[in-house]
Amino acid sequence: MEGDVLGKKSVKGKVQVPGDKSISHRAAIFGAMAVGKTVIHGYLTGEDCLHTLSCLEALGVQIDRQEKTVIINGTGWKNLREPKTVLDVGNSGTTMRLLLGVLAAQPFYTVLSGDKSLNERPMRRVSIPLTEMGARFDGRENGNKAPLSVRGNALRPITYQSPVASAQVKSAILLAGLQTEGVTTVVEPVASRDHTERMIEAFGGSIDTNGTRHSVKGRQKLIGTEIVVPGDFSSAAFLIAAALVTENSVLTIENVGINPTRTGMLTILKQMGANIELFNQRELNREPVCDILVRSSALKGTVIEGAVIPRLIDEIPILALIASQAEGRTVIKDAGELKVKETNRIQTVVSELKKLGVDIEATDDGMIIEGDPDKVLSGGVVNAYGDHRMAMMLMVASLISADPLVILEAESAAVSFPGFDRLLSAITRD
Question: Which of 364, 415, 365, 407 lies closest to 389 in space, CA to CA?
């Protein structure tokens, strides 16, 4: 994408964002594991979620992909088949880690692999508890990196104290536990996103949650259902940012999921003084949904740390850009998990925003941004490094850039938000 106007612009209008990526992945996987037909409305057609569908098809699941709807004819837990080739998960860590939980209990052999970036991401955080349950894994770096092979087995239930707050780790264990005789429990240090817990109940299953302790009984029968996927809050975050940091902006984003385990960014933006209203609040398949009204705002720097971090980990790149336009210092701590995302996001966010003139420094577990509400960014050439959230953050940065901005590997935005550049252009005003 190449910027072609000077100075700060405005965004105005009423828009919708693509379906929630996390919910789309889980709806497809649970639909495959359930008995009977599951109809998913609003399934995200980004690359990550399409890889999930392809992997499920390779495991013998019948899927009808229509224009706005995905129909899955569930096999139940016992009717998956050994794939004839390597499962390609692309850049999707969610696909790989959740499928590891499914495949750990299947009586056959599977190999999963992804793109160059995905194959450098750590997988032992998932394979360790699944090995404890009785599955067998092998892969690069002693089973830590893909390509990764799985030899499924009849598993035994465990109680696992997770060292990290990770919805992917938790979900993999729960998916394995649902296929295992007895009660499987996972305990997190702090709460991570809870879409899997809600999805279990949406498919007629049961889960016992007490704080950060989650337990499932095995051999539950899940029943196919109808799922409406709300708009992805992590995608809406970039449009929220565009309205906040540009001048005279008024933007309504409709049908956005506001699961409290995902909306830490709203908490932080309110602290910073953002003018944001939530209205038309309702619930879809146990997920809270609303419309969001955002106006240009005078923001102040803040400290982002502790228990809120898992609730906004994917939004930190765009929060760093927002902080550059706030008055005063913003400090982001306790975010070491950024190092094992699609890129090392601490490193890439800092390096690319520095190119635009942002006063930002990396720390071991986050970054420090010295904000200036009058700051107009410089232009030039920046790189998204194949990371969809970096690409969209830099596209928003082009709205407050004094000179044209050229973003290398901007096409990676299609992983979670196909057409983001076109939508951003459509709502932008000089």
Answer: 415
Cis ω on the peptide bond leading into residue 147 (within 30° of 0)?
yes
Name 143's Cβ contacts closer than 8 Å, sequence gap at least 6: 123, 124, 127, 137
pLDDT surpassing 60 at residue 6: no
| Residue 343 binned pLDDT confidence (cut-offs 50, 70, 90) | confident
Residues 92-128 pLDDT 10s: 999 999 999 999 999 999 999 999 989 999 999 999 9
Token pair for 315 = 């939004």
CA–CA dist 386, 350 (Å, integer): 16
Tell me how far apart the alpha carbons of residues 191 and 166 are, in angstroms, rounded to a whole number: 8
Q: How far apart are CA 78 and CA 81, in angstroms?
A: 9
Reading the block at residue 363, the tokens are 């720390």
Cβ atoms of 178 and 77 closer than 8 Å: yes
Domains of the chain: residue spans and CATH? 10-19+230-429 (3.65.10.10), 21-228 (3.65.10.10)
CB distance 108 to 155 below 8 Å:
no
- The secondary element (H helix, E strand) that includes residue 111 is strand 109-113
Average pLDDT over residues 349-369: 97
Using an 8 Å Cβ cutoff, are 239 and 17 in contact?
yes
Q: What is this structure's pTM?
A: 0.89
Q: If we measure between CA atoms, which residue out of 177, 173, 156, 169 comes closest to residue 219?
A: 177
For residue 32, give both structure tokens.
């495959």
Q: What average pLDDT does the structure give for the chain?
A: 94
Which tokens belong to 152? 């499924």
Name the token pair of 354: 């520095």
**E-assigned strand segments in 190-246:** 208-210, 213-217, 226-228
Taking residues 51-67, what's their average pLDDT?
96
- Cα separation, 357 vs 33, in Å, equals 50
Q: Please state, in angstroms and rounded to a whole number, the distance separating the CA atoms of residues 329 and 320.
A: 11
368 contacts 354 by C-beta, under 8 angstroms? no
How many residues does the structure list for the chain?
430
By annotation, the residues acting in catalysis are: 314
| Beta bridge partners of residue 257, listed in sequence order | 289
Mean pLDDT value across residues 375-400: 95
